[in-house]
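Morning!

This is the sequence you dropped in the shared folder:
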Amino acid sequence: MSGHSKFANIKHKKEKNDAAKGKMFTMIGRELAIAVKEGGPDPANNSKLRDVIAKAKANNMPNDTIDRGIKKAAGDSGNVNYEAVTYEGYGPGGTAIIVDALTDNKNRTAANVRNCFTKGQGSIGTQGCVSYMFDEKGQIIIDKEECEMEADDLMMSALDAGAEDFAEEDDCFEIITAPADFPAVREALATEGIVMTQAEVTMLPQNYVTLQNETDITNIQRILDLLEEDDDVQTVYHNWEE
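The structure's back. Tokens below.
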């Protein structure tokens, strides 16, 4: 676990998201639309939609906004034209970056993402060039201050539901699952009233890269900031040890 606080990073990201809550809600709205298009508007019969709803709630999206998004997507299901695209590339100092986007114009998004890398002295690579350095996993982060359950009881609940790993940090608990087991584990914890700060399927680096050169640090931060500002970009994964 390398000793650093995952929750501190999560809180930092949430604070940045709070400053751009409109963008976050737009991003989640697109995910809702895709989930409804693929599996229908009923969360009871659409596990992907349930996962997106959980993500929306973790980001403090109001229930009525979620409901409106689902109804709108159901009404426009034949017109939803967002396409999921993934880009992989290299940042300064041998860092690896994966970008997930939802777009209605692949040419525009590809050009914008390439521009973000270029401005930070990075480069876009071919599909698969860095993804082998990551593992796709379900990740659940629970703030200790919001969890009344004892650590051992929480661990047993998670493992009994199908989790692969449980770790305790200074300020949070981290639960890791296989992607296929993530919905069952998340729903089991939700049933027990566990408040989750983050709950999503993500890409976890197998190893982290530490940058010593100040120019490299400035450049990778520039890449990440520019990608975060792009409306088509949904998620950015990297192996930089911040």
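Headline: The two ends are 14 Å apart (CA to CA).

More detail when I'm at my desk.
O.
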